[in-house]
From TrEMBL:
Domain DUF6966: 27-63
Phylogenetic lineage: Bacteria, Pseudomonadati, Bacteroidota, Flavobacteriia, Flavobacteriales
Database matches in InterPro entries: DUF6966
Full protein name: DUF6966 domain-containing protein
Organism: Chryseobacterium taeanense
Entry-linked Pfam families: DUF6966
Length: 92
């Protein structure tokens, strides 16, 4: 999958969970196509610090949605790896 694909998949998962910022990932996927380095930088920064993308937990009916969080965890990790890989390619 491409970085844009990961962003779209995450957006769909977040939208299904009624997460208010789900569209951000659609925007990042589109930005990646037009301004790759800027998108990579923004995505990478989303993973650091308290209250970051890493800390996001999805709920359904007031309870932690284990299935959705497992999917998000995989997508989140795969996206991060893809971003780091792209950054390394750009620096070489």
């Amino acid at each position: 999958m491409t970085i844009k694909d990961y962003c779209l998949q995450i957006s769909k998962l977040l939208e299904k969970a009624d997460y208010e910022k789900s569209k951000v990932f659609i925007q990042l996927g589109n930005l990646y196509v037009t301004h790759k380095e800027e998108a990579l930088s923004i995505i990478k920064k989303m993973y650091g610090g308290m209250g970051s993308f890493n800390d996001l937990v999805l709920y359904k009916d007031g309870k932690v949605d284990i299935e959705a969080n497992e999917k998000l965890s995989v997508l989140r990790e795969d996206l991060y790896k893809a971003v780091l890989s792209e950054i390394i390619k750009l620096r070489c």
